[in-house]
Write a structure and sequence with these properties.
Helix content is 79%, strand content 0%. The protein is an all-alpha fold. Helix 4 runs antiparallel to helix 7. It is globular, with a radius of gyration of 17 Å.
Amino acid sequence: MMDDAQSDTLKEIETIPPVALWLGVGGLIPFLAPALFIWMPPAQGWQGIAGTFGMVYGAIILSFLGGVRWGGALHHLDARTFILSVLPALLAYGVLVFPAIPLGPLLLAACHSVQGLSDISAARNGMLPVWYARLRAGLTLGAVSSLLSIALNFYLAANV
């Protein structure tokens, strides 16, 4: 078990731990694949599958990120962070229950952007490890870009 001094030292590490980097980058693959497959010729039938897969994965990851914040709140016992940590899951659920295309992927992209900025701020304020800000910046960019690609394809398909 770590004491508070050890925990504080781990939070100050600026280098992204290799396992977190590899898992994070690997976690972008299910974002990037649908963002690419959705642009295949319509005759191949990938648009619906890729769009659904991208939105569902985006919702799952948004919920996961809320769980990360819940974990940070456990250490600090911060009521506000506990409350805010459940919002990503509720928003993700709402997007999946009421998928207005292309609004669904746009809302997910917006939620991922806000969550990414919030996580970066939390890392800079000591609620999460310092290295987490750098990791989240890159992963957020990849996730948001992919969701915007899906939204753009849905928009173009609806307006052709």
